[in-house]
Each structure stands twice: as C-alpha cells, then as structure tokens.
Amino acid sequence: MKAGWKLLSGVNILVGLLLIGIMAKSNLIATAACLLLILKFTNLKMMFPLLERRGLELGLLFLILSILVPLANGRVSERDIIYNMTSLPGLLAIAGGALATYLNTIGIRLMKIDPEIVFGLVIGSIFGIVFLHGVPVGPLMAAGIAALFTGFTRFLRR
Q: What family does this belong to (predicted)?
C-alpha cells in the first residue's frame, strides 16, 4: 500500500507540475514533467539515477553551448571581448560572474547538507516562472541565494 501511494504521489505531483506549466505557458516545466511521466510509465526508470547524477551538468553544458555560439560563429570578435572586459559594464559582469560562482558553491554545500531544500527551490522556481515571468536557469544560484538568506537569518538571531 505504501509503495502504491508513493508512486501515485509522485505521479500526482508531476501531473500537477505539467498542468501548472501548461497554464503558466512555461514550456520548460511542462516538458520536464511530461518527460518524467513518460520515463515513469515506460519502465525507463533506470534513467532517473542518471538524470539525477548528470542532468544538472548536461543542462549547464547546453546553457554554456548556447552562450558560446556567438563566439563560434564569429558574431562576437576578439575586439568586442577586450572592450567588454575593460569597460565598466564588462568589469561589473566579471564581478557578477565571480559572485555568482561563489553563490553556486555555497548553494551546492547547502544542497548536500540539506537535500530536502531542493523541493523548496523547485517550488520557488515555479512561483518565479508563473508570477515573475522568470526563466529557471539557475537552481544552483537559487540554492546559493537560499544559503545566503539562511546565513543572514542565523546572523540576525545572534
């Protein structure tokens, strides 16, 4: 009975996410929920550990590929890169990138210490997509910001 409830519960949540994705016109959420439902019902559940272990890396790979395409096809020149790295917006972008990677690092630490927080990150991402019309490209950043908030609240309690 408990195993059946667990299966049903996961399916219900994924169907709920699919519906939220469709209603919010978020193709990413709808597609992800739909693909997981397909994997679940076609006995391809052996893909779950692989996706869990390597899915984030695969997603980041495609994100980086899409960002680097302008370099590969020549739309961004070396001159443009040098100018952007020495201008105020470019220097601020470098600082932002450094801060983002640091926040990603503390986000990973938080997810290792408290893996249940991932569900809060997913729900927060859904709210951000639905109500703020955001793009869910930064689960590590979300975890980093959550870790920053957590540290700040601990600091305030002292």
A: Belongs to the UPF0756 family.
Q: Is the pLDDT of residue 129 over 50?
A: yes
Encode pLDDT of 96-110 as tens digits: 989 988 988 888 888
Whether pLDDT at 8 is above 80: no
pTM above 0.70, yes or no: no
In whole angstroms, what is the distance from residue 41 CA to residue 61 CA?
28
Domain extents in the chain: 1-45, 77-158
Residue 42 phi, psi dihedral angles, 5° rounding: -105, 15
In this structure, are residues 39 and 57 in contact, taking their beta carbons and an 8 Å threshold? Answer: no
CB 129 within 8 A of CB 29: yes
- pLDDT for the residue 1: 44
Please tell me the distance from the alpha carbon of residue 29 to that of residue 37, in angstroms, as a whole number: 12
Please, what sign has the CA dihedral across residues 131, 134, 139, 144? Answer: negative
One-letter identity of residue 86: T
